[in-house]
Specification:
single chain; alpha/beta; two-stranded antiparallel sheet; 12 strands
Length: about 350
């Protein structure tokens, strides 16, 4: 097994070890005002959405997790199967490994094989050669491209990159690739200045991926001979980074610490076009297999439809109109940063 593939499998094991479904995060400090008399009924059909021109059954999706090793091949196959059964989008984990290890392609291809017609998003780092990105997109018949930004993870990673001059590479990818491009953080949140800079350079879509879920500084610290645990608290809370994206008037997805359908509703109420879920779905698969994950997603769809009715709304577009209020610690952060 190569060093890169070994690292992929270490990440999976550590993500499982540090997983805490009840982890407190900024979603707990955001509250939505509920009408006692909503005058609505539960209607699951309102969850249907369009993502990159294709119909999907819900405004949430399976977000980037893994790929590039034997264990991740099995996981991606199951995720592809569930995505197909549920008709929801699937974002694969970073495929940048394929630029140097083409033999790992099958660990990503299995997802597309299971879901040949669904929305599939591929993920690379900003320094992946454009020729490799084009090949990956072609092989996987991708519908969109995520470019992940992960400076904190790289600093925490013993073998991580130390050169973060990425804007020119992102602009070159934007020029060369004729697909929707999503700039995605990896759990530390996109700040408003960076969102604005990327927006004026032609980027339309963002996945804010704030703090509150998987913490890659914690994961990399567990692999590091030195203690870099001080990096674990450098993230922007998901709610704050979502509000920054809203203020920049960009199309954005909300992810980072999404644990349940109420968190999904809050992400949509913040203005997110879609909400991404990674580790909760991964751990459900690990514990209960693809059947368990499929059932969980079915349950979440039903519960989300019920919540929308409880909050007095009849369609997804109106969710941003729900009145919001914040606990004081989060409100203080919002007041200082926005």
């Amino acid at each position: 097994m190569s060093i890169r593939s070994e690292r992929k499998e270490e990440h999976l094991k550590l993500a499982q070890m540090f997983f805490n479904k009840e982890k407190y995060n900024s979603f707990d400090q955001l509250h939505l005002l509920r009408p006692a008399l909503p005058e609505t009924k539960v209607d699951p059909t309102i969850l249907g959405s369009k993502m990159f021109g294709q119909n999907v059954s819900a405004p949430f999706f399976i977000n980037a997790m893994t790929g590039g090793s034997a264990a991740s091949k099995q996981i991606n196959q199951a995720l592809g199967q569930v995505a197909q059964q549920q008709n929801i989008a699937l974002a694969l984990g970073s495929a940048s490994i394929l630029a140097k290890e083409t033999d790992q392609l099958d660990s990503f291809m299995v997802a597309r094989a299971e879901d040949p017609d669904g929305v599939l998003i591929v993920n690379v780092n900003p320094e992946t050669p454009i020729s490799a990105i084009k090949q990956i997109i072609q092989e996987l018949n991708a519908d969109a491209l995520q470019i992940h930004l992960n400076t904190i993870q790289e600093i925490a990673m013993p073998e991580g990159d130390r050169d973060f001059r990425w804007l020119d590479s992102i602009k070159a990818i934007r020029t060369a690739i004729d697909l929707p491009i999503i700039i995605k953080e990896v759990g530390f949140g996109l700040d408003q200045t960076s969102i604005h800079l990327l927006k004026v350079n032609g980027i339309e879509y963002f996945d804010v991926a704030g703090s509150g879920g998987t913490n890659f500084a914690q994961i990399e610290n567990a692999r590091n001979a030195s203690d870099v645990s001080y990096l674990e608290d450098l993230g922007l809370p998901t709610v704050v980074t979502a509000l920054m994206a809203w203020q920049e008037q960009v199309k954005f997805f909300v992810s980072g610490g999404v644990r349940n359908p109420l968190d999904i509703l809050k992400g949509l109420a913040l203005g997110g076009k879609f909400v991404g879920i990674s580790n909760v779905f991964l751990q459900e698969y690990i514990q209960n297999g693809s059947t368990g994950l499929d059932q969980l997603i079915t349950n979440w769809k039903n519960e989300l439809a019920a919540l929308i009715a409880v909050y007095g709304k009849k369609d997804l577009a109106s969710l941003v109109q729900i009145k919001k209020y914040y606990d004081l610690p989060l409100k203080a952060q919002i007041d200082q940063l926005l």
